[in-house]
């Protein structure tokens, strides 16, 4: 049974106003994964989103995984609805974080990344497929898709996978409306604005997208989302972690 227990990891994400997404279609993003915590009463608590790298490994934020015992983490793939009764979950074997210096628990910390290894091979089909990490850094002005599940503290919580379109910004100094100060010194991070092409429902309550895969139009993985807020015209709506700087490290870890 899926649990709706409250957990707000980042105060910023609990204070956002409004949003601007639509529900993803079944099978539209087959690389999507969800990281859940199995509680003592056997309920599942959604923590973060992630991306399927191969039949053994999921990529997500370090914040979402390293603070829990691997035996308590479950991975959901192949479903756009957290509450679906026939969902298939995979138990976790190990969690590996990156890198030196090690990640520390702050919302905009560098190296906020981890690979999660499942015990049994993930079965691929039309709705479950891996995604390749792009060797190209995020491009200024490029449109990307960001997919993740909503934060369940929302008054009108939905268990369905959400999609919104974002435009990457390479000048991190423009992130100040969202993070106040300091982000321009962390080169691994980048900011995003809402795409004019995104005409999703703007009347949904606030939610966050931590761990959400940020993919290019060619369906390659360019980043993971760290924080998001409601849509505001010409302002920063999300902060993501660039994956190109970590690409070689990640593939070396999952292929050994």
TrEMBL record:
It comes from the Eukaryota. Keywords: Disulfide bond, Fibrinolytic toxin, Hemostasis impairing toxin, Signal, Toxin. The keyword Disulfide bond applies. Its main location: secreted. One of its GO terms (molecular function) is toxin activity. PROSITE patterns: TRYPSIN_DOM. Residues 15-255 form the Peptidase S1 domain. InterPro entries: Peptidase_S1_PA (IPR009003), Peptidase_S1_PA_chymotrypsin (IPR043504), Trypsin_dom (IPR001254). Residues 1-21 form the signal peptide. Pfam families: Trypsin. GO terms for cellular component: extracellular region. It is found in: Secreted, Extracellular space. GO terms for biological process: proteolysis. SUPFAM superfamilies: Trypsin-like serine proteases. Fibrinolytic activity; shows preferential cleavage of Arg-Gly bonds in all three fibrinogen chains. Contact with the caterpillars causes severe bleeding, due the anticoagulant effect of the protein. This is Peptidase S1 domain-containing protein. It comes from Pieris macdunnoughi.
């Amino acid at each position: 049974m899926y649990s709706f227990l409250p957990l707000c990891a980042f105060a910023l994400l609990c204070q956002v106003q409004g949003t601007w997404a639509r529900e993803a279609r079944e099978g539209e993003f087959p690389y999507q994964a969800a990281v859940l915590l199995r509680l003592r009463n056997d309920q599942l608590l959604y923590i973060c989103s992630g991306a399927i790298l191969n039949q053994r490994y999921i990529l997500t934020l370090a914040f979402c995984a390293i603070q829990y015992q691997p035996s308590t983490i479950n991975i959901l793939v192949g479903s756009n609805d957290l509450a679906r009764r026939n969902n298939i979950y995979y138990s976790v074997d190990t969690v590996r974080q990156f890198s030196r210096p090690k990640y520390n628990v702050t919302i905009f910390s560098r190296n906020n990344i981890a690979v999660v290894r499942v015990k049994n091979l993930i079965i691929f089909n039309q709705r479950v497929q891996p995604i390749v990490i792009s060797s190209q850094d995020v491009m200024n002005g490029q449109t990307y898709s960001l997919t993740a599940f909503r934060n369940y503290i929302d008054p009108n919580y939905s268990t369905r996978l959400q999609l919104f379109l974002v435009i990457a910004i390479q000048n991190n100094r423009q992130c100040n409306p969202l993070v106040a100060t300091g982000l321009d010194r962390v080169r691994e991070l980048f900011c995003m604005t809402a795409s004019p092409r995104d005409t999703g429902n703007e009347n949904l309550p606030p939610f966050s997208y931590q761990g959400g895969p940020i993919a290019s139009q060619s369906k390659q993985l360019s980043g993971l989302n760290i924080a998001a807020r409601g849509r505001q015209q010409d302002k920063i709506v999300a902060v993501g972690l660039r994956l190109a700087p970590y690409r070689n490290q990640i593939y070396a870890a999952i292929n050994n």
